[in-house]
Amino acid sequence: RPMWRMIKSGFTTGDADVFAPYRDRLIHLFTLACLVIFAPFALANFLLDRVPLGIVTLIIILILLVNSWAIRRRKPPPVPLWVLVFPVIAAMITALLTPLYMALAWLYPMAILFYFILQRGIANACVAATVGIAGVLMYFLLPPDISVRVTTRVVGSLTLTAVFCNIFLAIISDLHRQLLHQATVDPLTGAYNRRHMQRVLDEAMQRAGRSRLAATLLVLDIDHFKQVNDRLGHAAGDQALVRVANSLRQHVRATDVLFRMGGEEFLIFLPETTQDAAAIVAEKLRQDIETGETTPGHTLTISIGVSGLRDGDTLEQWLAAGDKALYQAKNSGRNRVCVRD
Q1: pTM summary value
Q2: Catalytic residue among 203, 264, 265, 290
Q3: Residues β-bridged to residue 271
Q4: For every one of its 341 residues, what pLDDT tens digit does the chain have, with 9 covering 90 and above?
Q5: Annotated catalytic, 272?
Q6: Are 258 and 266 in contact (CB under 8 A)?
């Protein structure tokens, strides 16, 4: 994607939160770093009679420490991490009033910290608030002879830091999306692969167990597919697989999921669909393939096994029932639909 679109997606929900799987570990790591680095500064501030700055530094450490402890005990963090923006701003105000201008250097690692522990849109909002408030405070609180010069440099450098973080996260998000696509999608047909099927069906069985909603599998196999490869070549066979997959996608709902099991075998997961309703869908798919022009000069047909999820089924039993129904369709003459039991 164009870089400007990748950066723009950081202000929306368009990009996945790529740090989400690692966020708990990141919070533990940053909490440890703050204890090692910030705690001595907090103690030094108290000893040097800079009590307000010491207090806000301790607040930052405590927020991270409380959340890290809750995560360690497998509980949700009690304090939203975006709350850190308030002690950061308070520390900035106290540093300007002390005056202790060198303390403003901590704004840069804190801005970067937001991008690691928060979703990118929220991090951008926190950094934007910090930069905006920093600009106003420095302009009015710094001595007149340096206020404009220092304000423009700090605001400009913080803004540039945020832009660089967004570029970095945009590239990471794009690479994450590409890797996820490669890991879950069959490159030839565009259907999901068997690895992704395992995860989708596991989650579907859990939902069905909680809500008692119906769910059905269609196990499909192209009849006499070897003849297509033998007569027309493997390139024509690949093209036939692509056209069959496209035809199947066009005739199912948006909530239904198509997988390629391997070779010429496909599987369609129909959530919230009874076995009888799925059999009607399967017959429609069979007719569409038989009457469609999936391969020039060669009529393709498919056999379909229909397997509804039953109480007590494991994933292996559910799939095995679909395979059994498919074999029954094959043994009964092919180009037909057979239902479980």
Answers
A1: 0.68
A2: 264
A3: 215
A4: 555 555 555 554 445 678 888 889 999 999 999 889 888 988 988 898 888 888 988 999 999 999 999 998 888 889 998 999 999 888 888 888 877 778 788 889 989 999 998 988 899 999 999 999 989 988 888 888 888 998 999 999 999 999 999 888 888 888 888 888 888 999 999 999 988 999 999 988 888 777 778 899 999 999 988 888 878 888 888 888 998 999 999 888 999 999 999 889 999 999 999 999 999 999 999 999 988 766 666 778 999 999 999 988 899 999 999 999 999 999 999 999 999 88
A5: no
A6: yes
Tokens of 144: 């007149």
